[in-house]
Design a protein that fits this description.
The structure holds 2 protein chains of 2 kinds. Chain A has 17 helices and 15 strands. By secondary structure, chain A is α/β, with parallel strands linked by helices. A 6-stranded parallel β-sheet of chain A has the order 1-13-12-11-14-15, with helices on both faces. In chain A, strands 4-3-5-6 form a 4-stranded parallel β-sheet, with helices on both faces. A 4-stranded parallel β-sheet of chain A has the order 8-7-9-10, with helices on both faces. In chain A, strand 3 (39-44), helix 2 (47-61) and strand 4 form a beta-alpha-beta unit. The chains are: A alpha/beta, B alpha/beta. The interface between A and B is large, with 66 and 71 residues. Chain A: Keywords: Nitrogen fixation.
């Protein structure tokens, strides 16, 4: 049996992080703000804070990324950066005219403990009409706590706080707070699933409108799409609030308080049970039976699990991802009968200890490699693209997920959610394992390929191509 | 104080921009205007310092800061290595709130020890970032103590992001090498043809397009700063007989101080294109002979240049027709803003504008000479204007870095990466041909007709 006591998530206090799994929370906040139509994130920090996040987002999405900086120098950092913040907001509000301007503090401003809430209130007063239609959002996501999903969660909560106003209840409409682990492809599937019940929805944020890789008709200095500005005023005009991912809970709770609507947080909508919970919930909200198309999708998922389990059962899958993505992936892998000897994540959150993995660590990609070696190796690694080094060292293929994926195009269209996304992942895992094992078939037993340490393994001439 | 050490870096006599200043302007430093909040682009000083030193492949590079400084940033340049890949590992102290409150010097001390125990590198570079600089971590002291304890150099790189731009960071990295690295060890042997390359980062193997030329001439690359470098060879730079500053904007201070301290003559040059490459080889030959190398080096260099240039002309033929007359918008920096102009002109292309916003005055002069018209020297071009130039067909293709690529791509025009994220080496004679081929393939790619065509239900549709 897998132990499930809450102390078992290991959080080694390491002085040296080697090959980080984490990216910075402000990067996550920026990404969420890019999921709002005419959105623009502004980092309150030194130029480099923005440049690094910008370059990484570009490398992953291969799209233009609107992202600006208050460009703090040493003097402003020491004396206080409020003037820079005001100047940046004024410049952006009058020139780029974003619908939503998201202010993301960085470690630099956090260390100085600037009172951003007060600063922003005063700046708003001073700017007056210069601010125009621009809605200011405060996305407090310190660099020190967590990674992308924590920053994303803070930005979404900030948007709800700035925009949500009491509205009359709107029948058959769902306000969905979408977690950072959902891809553009997942959001498309989620919307289709909701609409299959005759419901309409507002997705917040909605990267499927902005970072879905379409060719725009003109150049835009702000995000190219996403949750419409008007829909932000109407976040409370719904019949229910649905949050996808545990990290969406704070935003969902706030929206529940503002709207008085019933709130449901679904930790994951991946795997049979996760997708079932989503579909059952929608059926309840719509007061309609589950439509035939979704029943068929479920049946296809079950069949793909049957087809995939032959390759997958007993296979050892090491996984590294942010907490809510990890939840989805561990669920999918273990549904297939895989064993997860090691799961690495970025931050300790409630509920992780219940995941069926042998070892759970908060750590980096070197921990992924080292812990998996200690556990006797693995057959497949599931992680963001920088894990290619660890995967090669483990002689296992890499299935790329999460952020970043810098050596793939179109990863935003990969799906993980619902019946369809789960089916795709199940088949992908089975195919990756089959392909990797094909190289070893019909070889003498001396080349028996995994459980690492034998010399035959390391001397094997088997090519170890990245997945 | 860091500010004390910054002052001499601002006053760089090797920098033409600086020479053109009044005393008062010079004292004000390199960032009189400073970046504009809400309208700035580009990296910070830490970024520049790391770019300059990280290509030293066998060293451990530890970033002392919160996760943003390394987690968003590691292994993101295509500097190539012929050996160790330790330089590609993402090593950081990943500071937490608790570290900041308690002080993070001890954590850094432990991190250095862990890196040495795990990787056994010949040297460790420790990069200061804004947060520990703000809280007053003394990384100089930690590095000095660690050097003593571990019996190998542990080098503080003091260029926290907020002290200035990427370019300032490049120079601070140069100062770091001059203070802690260059001249600390001696090569086993020296030759009359030992050279040093400065600010050549071996992006996708650029350097390896050049090294066969040196080898053919019997010139020894004693020290490369810092592409594909081993730590030891950087310490030998003071024994070179001549040095070349490849990206003069980045590290001219190193070239000048090598001359000042050790009498090594230097020149600013480029390996971008045929003309620049030949000129660089010629200059090296002349300087080395002046320093005592056998005089026949000059004739042998001319013979090699003649042979290579003839070969390039022959092998360029298949691309000539595709490239002839095509209009290029060049949006890049450093020596590329003029060197690539001459390259493209040699290919028969027309450069409608080149951005000199990140060029030295020397670079601007060269670009002006090549283009003939002042208005073709561009400053920062707003994205909307860049989009218009491309969409309306004033340029057939844009050459730039990754960040501006989407302006061209959204305008549905061809784009080619000339910066550090590219996948092909463009240096030297071979690189000229690689660039010609990439340009031809990009311009001819069928995708441009498809994305500029119309759907059957749209106006302008042609079957």
């Amino acid at each position: 049996m897998i132990p499930t006591d809450s102390r078992r998530v290991e959080t080694p206090r390491k002085a040296l992080t080697i090959d980080p799994l984490k990216v910075s929370p402000p990067l996550g906040a920026a990404l969420a703000l890019l999921g709002v139509e005419r959105g623009m994130p502004l980092f309150h920090g030194s130029q480099g804070c923005t440049a690094f996040a910008l370059v990484l987002l570009v490398r992953h999405f291969r799209e233009a990324i609107p992202l600006q900086t208050t460009a703090l120098g040493e003097i402003e950092t020491i004396l206080g950066g409020t003037d820079n913040l005001e100047a940046a907001i004024r410049t952006l509000a009058t020139k780029s005219k974003p619908a939503v301007l998201g202010i993301c503090p960085t470690a630099l401003t956090d260390t100085r403990s600037e009172d951003m809430t007060a600063d922003l209130r005063q700046i708003t007063q001073r700017l007056g009409d210069d601010l125009g239609e621009t809605l200011l959002v405060h996305a407090p996501a310190p660099d020190y706590v967590g990674g992308l999903q924590e920053g994303w969660a803070a930005a979404v909560r900030g948007i709800v706080d700035a925009a949500a106003r009491p509205r009359p209840r709107r029948a058959d409409h769902v306000t969905v707070l979408a977690g950072a682990h959902l891809t553009v492809g997942d959001l498309d599937l989620l919307r289709d699933t909701i609409e299959a019940f005759g419901l309409t929805c507002t997705l917040l944020p909605d990267l499927s409108g902005s970072l879905d890789g379409h060719v725009p008709e003109t150049w835009s200095p702000v995000s190219l799409g996403g949750t419409p500005r008007a829909a932000l005023d109407d976040l409370c005009a719904a019949s229910a609030v649905l949050a996808i991912g545990e990290h969406m809970r704070p935003a969902a709770t706030l929206l529940g308080e503002r709207s008085g609507l019933p709130v449901t947080v679904l930790e994951t909508i991946s795997g049979v049970k996760g997708a079932d919970r989503l579909v059952a919930e929608l059926s309840k909200i719509a007061k309609r039976p589950v439509p035939a198309t979704l029943r068929r999708d479920r049946s296809r998922l079950l069949d793909s699990l049957i087809d995939s389990h032959f390759a997958a059962i007993g296979q050892r899958v090491a996984i590294a991802a942010e907490p809510d993505m990890l939840r989805a992936l561990v669920t999918l892998a273990t549904d297939l009968g895989c064993r997860v000897p090691v799961a690495v994540t970025t931050t300790k959150v409630p509920g992780l200890d219940a995941l069926p993995a042998d070892r759970l660590l908060v750590g980096d990609l070197d921990d992924l490699q080292t812990a998996t070696e200690e556990a006797g190796g693995c057959d497949l690694v599931i992680a963001p693209s920088p894990a290619i080094r660890a995967a090669n060292a483990l002689h296992a293929p890499l299935l790329r997920v999460g952020f970043p994926q810098v050596d793939r195009v179109g990863s935003q269209h990969d799906t993980f959610a619902g019946y369809q996304g789960s089916r795709r992942v199940a088949l992908t895992i089975a195919n990756a394992i089959t392909e990797s094992h094909a190289a070893h078939h019909l070889r003498p037993p001396a080349h028996h390929h995994h459980h690492a340490q034998t010399e035959a393994h390391h001397d094997s001439a088997t090519p170890v191509a990245p997945y | 104080m860091l500010t004390d050490r910054l002052a001499p870096v601002f006053d760089e006599p090797g920098c033409a921009t600086n020479r053109a200043k009044t005393d008062a302007q010079r004292k004000a430093g390199c960032k009189p205007k400073g970046p504009a909040p809400g309208a700035a682009a580009g990296g910070c000083a830490f970024d520049g310092a790391k770019i300059s030193l990280q290509p030293i492949v066998d060293a451990a590079h530890i970033v002392h800061g919160p996760i943003a400084c390394e987690g968003n940033n590691w292994d993101n340049r295509h500097s190539a290595s012929s050996g160790s890949d330790l330089y590609r590992r993402g090593l950081t102290t990943d500071l937490t709130e608790l570290d900041v409150i308690q002080g993070s010097e001890k954590k850094l001390w432990k991190a250095i020890r862990q890196a040495i125990e795990k990787f056994d590198p010949p040297a460790v570079f420790v990069y200061q970032t804004c947060v520990p600089a703000l809280t007053g971590d003394d990384i100089r002291a930690v590095c000095a103590a660690a050097t003593e304890r571990h019996g190998r150099p542990v080098i503080p790189v003091e260029a926290p992001g907020f002290v200035g731009t990427k370019n300032l960071g490049n120079r601070l990295a140069g100062e770091t090498l001059l203070e802690h690295v260059i001249g600390t060890r001696e090569p086993e042997t020296t030759t009359p043809t030992d050279i040093c390359l400065i600010a050549e980062f071996n992006i996708v193997g650029d350097l390896w397009q050049i090294t066969p030329l040196f080898e053919a001439l019997g010139i020894r690359l004693l020290s490369c700063i810092s592409g594909d470098a081993r730590y030891n060879e950087v310490t030998y730079a003071h024994r070179a007989r001549a040095s070349m500053v490849v990206c003069s904007q980045a590290m001219v201070n190193v070239g000048r101080k090598l001359q000042e301290r050790w009498g090594i003559p230097y020149f600013e040059g480029s390996f971008n294109g045929v003309r620049a490459t030949s000129e660089a080889l010629r200059t090296f030959a002349r300087l080395l002979v002046e320093q005592g190398a056998p005089a026949d080096l000059i004739d042998r260099t001319e013979a090699l240049i003649a042979e290579k240039e003839a070969e390039v002309r022959r092998r360029f033929e298949p691309f000539r027709e595709t490239l002839a007359g095509k209009k290029v918008l060049l949006y890049t920096g450093g020596n590329k803003s003029w060197a690539v102009v001459s390259t493209l002109q040699d290919m028969g292309m027309e450069v409608i504008g080149t951005s000199v916003r990140k060029s030295t005055n020397h670079g601007k002069d060269r670009a002006r000479d090549l283009l003939g018209e002042e208005q073709k020297l561009l400053g920062a071009v707003p994205n909307a204007e860049m989009y218009r130039i491309l969409r309306e067909g004033e340029a057939d293709i844009m050459l730039s870095g990754g960040r501006s690529q989407f302006v061209a791509l959204n305008a549905r025009r061809p784009w080619l990466d000339t910066n550090q994220e590219r996948h092909h080496p463009y240096a030297g004679y071979e690189g000229f041909l690689v660039l010609a081929e990439r340009l031809a393939l990009t311009l001819d790619a069928p995708v441009w007709d498809l994305v500029n065509g119309h759907a059957p239900w749209e106006e302008g549709y042609t079957p």
